[in-house]
Amino acid sequence: MADEFDIDIAITDSDSLVNSTSIFVVKDIDIDTEPKEIGLLDIRLNQHVVVDISDEDVIKLNSAGVNKDSKIIARITSLTNHQGVSATWNLESFYVAD
Questions:
Q1: Which in 79, 86, 93, 98 has the greatest CB count within 10 A?
Q2: 40-86: per-residue pLDDT in tens?
Q3: Domain coordinates of the chain in residue numbers?
Q4: CATH tag for 2-96 (out of 2.40.50.140, 3.30.70.60, 1.10.1760.20, 3.30.365.10)
């Protein structure tokens, strides 16, 4: 993107681990797609992020009673892409906050 628009928006070098821990509201859980996804709204930043979830994550979320509008404290991670920006986010861990 830096070459195309002469603006460098890179967070860091490609393939660098980026993580975020915050309080989120679950906006949706989509287990009918591949990859499975959970939509989270970061309460602190008022920013929406779509996070890929594994079958194991789905089991953990269901066991914890997490559904739409649940509040969770979660750590999400991403590897930066070839442009140095976060791309696919993954659920590292979570705790129910409400």
A1: 86
A2: 999 999 999 999 999 999 999 999 999 999 999 999 998 877 666 66
A3: 2-96
A4: 2.40.50.140
* Residue 46 neighbours by CB distance under 10 Å: 7
In contact, 76 and 49? CB cutoff 8 Å: yes
Cα–Cα dist 83/98, whole Å? 37
